Amino acid sequence: MEEQIRDLFPMVAALEQWKSDRESELLRNQLPDNFNIEQLGDCRIVREIARGGMGVVFEARQGTLDRRVAVKLLPWRISMVPQRWESFQREAQTFAKLKHANIVPIFSFGRHDDFAYYVMQYVDGVSLSHVITELRDHPAVSFGNLVKEASGDAREDDVAGSGANRGLKRNSWKQFARIAVQVAQALRHAHRQGVLHNDVKPANLLIDASARVWVTDFGLAEELDAAKDDERITGTLRYMPPERFEGRSDETSDIYSLGVTLFELVTREPAFDGSDRSELLTEIAAGNLRPPRDIDPDIPTALEAIILKATSLQADERYLTAGDFASDLLRFINGEKVRAKPRRKWFPGFGRKG
């Protein structure tokens, strides 16, 4: 597979750059600095809370019950890219099938003028990417304080769950594992429903003040059966498993992406640090992931073993299900022997067959 991926490098790099340039151009043309929208369906817009390449998220109040919700508005005009509306409807319906304590639920979706949107539960939290950034700059972080800074109205006494861990230190190894367990359990549920996330990364994981993790943005989710023949290259490259370069993905692809995310949480450094697309493609395809303990020797050997198994270059050497991944993380948390084997020696292509 490595030789095939290497042959694909020029095409993949060109496709990624073309896609990025085309989408950036489209978004620049269609995404105004301010959306002059007061109402979306039965939702009254309160404020804009986030925006990115795939949409704008608003805080809103829904219906006669005045329920606090989040509304994601896609930036494309449907009349200009009608295929996006069809794709959006399929993805929203896929997302709506997922009912799990660690998955942000979607309530409804619709159209406003020439834009599409969907309504989901409002999560008073911050992204894991923000938490990682804060840990780089500070020896410890408080989820409650981060949420307060982000929303301006979260209160510690509103947080449910006495005894819940509400912060992290740089050596909070078991707490890091607990975060990953919640994501793995959410992915297990999604996979059992026949749904892949296909874009697991820190930016798509929210943490509230009680340390509860919420998986969001299944906007790149695909039905498992459909993913087998999908030749599109989507997702965020730094967290993308090598088989995605060939247009393949399955449950172990999400496991790999979660492993790379856990690597970044534990070390506060990206697993692959290539400065451009070509370098990243080369590093990912070769399996040049640095062992976490080479970055921080204080990382427990068992936790490193779990991360390296989840991010193995060969899919069949990873955890085969998200449930298996969660179980090994729980063994580590409980001080039990984990199934993942500690590394004996690291070399480029760790986990490669032959």
What structural keywords apply?
354 residues, 11 helices, Transferase(Phosphotransferase), domain 1, Phosphorylase Kinase, domain 1, 3-stranded antiparallel β-sheet, 6-stranded antiparallel β-sheet
Oligomer: single chain
Find the CATH topology of the largest domain: Transferase(Phosphotransferase), domain 1
Total number of helices = 11
Helix-strand pattern: HEEEEHEEEHEHEHEEEEHHHHHH
Q: Could you outline the blueprint of secondary structure elements for this entry?
A:
Blueprint: H1 2-30, E1 39-40, E2 43-52, E3 55-62, E4 67-73, H2 82-96, E5 106-112, E6 115-121, E7 125-127, H3 128-137, E8 140-142, H4 143-151, E9 167-169, H5 173-192, E10 195-196, E11 205-208, E12 213-215, E13 222-223, H6 224-227, H7 251-267, H8 277-286, H9 292-295, H10 301-310, H11 322-333
Antiparallel strand pairs: 1-2, 2-3, 3-4, 4-6, 5-6, 7-11, 8-9, 10-13, 11-12
Helix pairs in contact: 1-8, 5-7, 5-11, 7-10, 10-11
Tell me what the structure shows.
The protein is α+β, with helices and mostly antiparallel strands. It folds into two domains: 39-121, Phosphorylase Kinase, domain 1 (2-Layer Sandwich), CATH 3.30.200.20; 125-333, Transferase(Phosphotransferase) domain 1 (Transferase(Phosphotransferase), domain 1). It is 40% helix and 17% strand. It has helices at 2-30, 82-96, 128-137, 143-151, 173-192, 224-227, 251-267, 277-286, 292-295, 301-310, 322-333, and strands at 39-40, 43-52, 55-62, 67-73, 106-112, 115-121, 125-127, 140-142, 167-169, 195-196, 205-208, 213-215, 222-223. It has a six-stranded antiparallel β-sheet with strand order 1-2-3-4-6-5, covered by helices on one side. Strands 7-11-12 form a three-stranded antiparallel β-sheet. A two-stranded antiparallel ribbon has the order 8-9. A hairpin with a 2-residue loop joins β1 (39-40) and β2. The longest helix is centred in the first third of the chain and has 29 residues, at 2-30. The radius of gyration is 20 Å and the shape is globular. It starts with a helix and ends in a 21-residue tail after the last helix. Residues 4-29, 154-164 and 350-354 have low confidence and may be disordered.
